[in-house]
Amino acid sequence: MKNKNIPICIGKIILYICLIIWAILCLFPIYWLFTFSLKNNTEIFGGNIIGLPKVYRWGNYSNALLNGNVGIYLFNSFVVTALTILFTILASTMATFAMQRMRWKLSKVAMSILLVGMMIPIHAALLPVFVVMRNLKLINTIWSLIIPYTGFAIPMGILIISGILDGIPRELDESACIDGCNTYRLFFSIILPLLRPAIATCAVFTFLQSWNELMMAVTFISKDNAKTLTVGIQSMAGQYLTEWGPIGAALMIATIPTLILYFMLSGQVQKSFVVGAVKG
Amino acid sequence: MLPAVLFFLVVILMPVLMSLYYSTLNWDGMGSGTFIGFQNYKKLFVGNVDNFPKSVINSFLFLLASVFIQIPISLLLAIILANGVKGENFFRNVYFVPVVLSTVVIGQLWMKIYHPDYGLLNTFLRSIGLSSWAHGWLGDQKTALVATFIPILWQYTGYHMLLLYAAIKSINPEIFEAARIDGASRAKIALRITIPMILPMLEVSVIFSVIGSLKVFDLVYVLTNGGPAQASEVPSTLMVRTIFMGYQYGYGSAMAVFIIAECALFTFVVRKIFKALQKD
Questions:
Q1: For the complex shown, is ipTM > 0.90?
Q2: Binding-face residues of A in 205-224 toward B, CB within 8 A
Q3: According to the UniProt entry, where is the signal peptide (chain A) (predicted)?
Q4: Torsions phi, psi of A87, nearest 5?
Q5: Domains in chain A, please, with CATH?
Q6: A45 CB near a chain B CB, below 8 Å?
């Protein structure tokens, strides 16, 4: 009995060592980013590459926020993300409601066409959307990002919301109608509150998509006052090529909101990724 | 309904059609282009001057590496975690952290990791006595492609792990119970029960990583922008440069259409392969 247990035990230890190594590989770069965001070059190049900073230079953060324009980028990212989430949720809840609950010809077809949108890579739209935005004089404004982000987030939103809406009994609609509730009131005061979990999932997913999007942001925005964090940091890194501290601080500033969201709602975040895959 | 349809039309459907149309034009973005039929597509491969075929090959290398390195690691982690180890949730949450980070942050961070003089990687190599290995990973034509792949692996392994983990967790535990009572070993359970039962999710995972590799942009753009000397060029980076730096709108659109067509074709092929697998 004893002899049989030893190999299993060793196997388990190796297993845990592997799991822990992978966990360290996942977290260590973030820890390292945090430490060098608080150092200056003298300290990094003087040999203290991976240790905790000797002096915590929070000045790097204020430097990045004020001199490096990261404050503006942060603000833009918040506005873009918030409006994208708002529009996505409004448009996709309303559309899902209309397609699932109202009877009209082609409602099923409309649904499947909208869902095909999930398969379309952003590449397909890059230049045409750029041309449209240029003709509308919206290039270099945050609207040139909000509109396409919303468009690309809607199919996913519909997918997530239709799953939950399916589970809300239709009898509810009927009894509301009998009680004299019109369609709008039914939607806003009965259906919408019941969709809250789906809306949360959808919001989390949309947040990560638009907060992190790069391709459109770098091609549509070249003026500092409209840059979001991704494109802003990208251009800042070009200027501060040799200054590690402020860049590190800027990277931390871009990361902290997502990390906070993730630690508060890790279950919700993971769910939002799985839902899309299960039905996609 | 209407807002969603509007967004969909303006941002997804119309642009796809416009891309198709642009790809038949000789157009520099000013005025209107002249119709040249399939000339742009021909230029991609026949008498090509910008190394587009090479960029396609590079994206295929990414594809192979993702499917045969990344997915197996993810699958292994998923199976281990879903089997119920101590700290299952902790490990899962940690492995997923890189997924939520912005690609710009990850790219900039890895540029520092690869830094020839003070980077984490070279520091580590020197400290274990392998200083001859230390060099500028991203600046060397031989290592640039591999060096760009590793951050991609780092970021998305957690994502695939989560998808597969969720699939394993949704299998009825009684099946595992029964197998264990029948004396099946862990490896046998994984091979004969777990993997066949999660084939549908594995298919999704493979499709995502195939499409992701074919259209990869963010990390390559941040880390090398295709360089040095196009050693790590992929179709998307070349496309963005052709359109927005070279003002070859028609030719760039042909690249976009090629990428979309490629994604559709490969999705179809992967579906077929998995259908054949499931029949066995």
A1: no
A2: 208, 211-212, 214-215, 218-219
A3: none
A4: -65, -40
A5: 68-236 (1.10.3720.10)
A6: yes
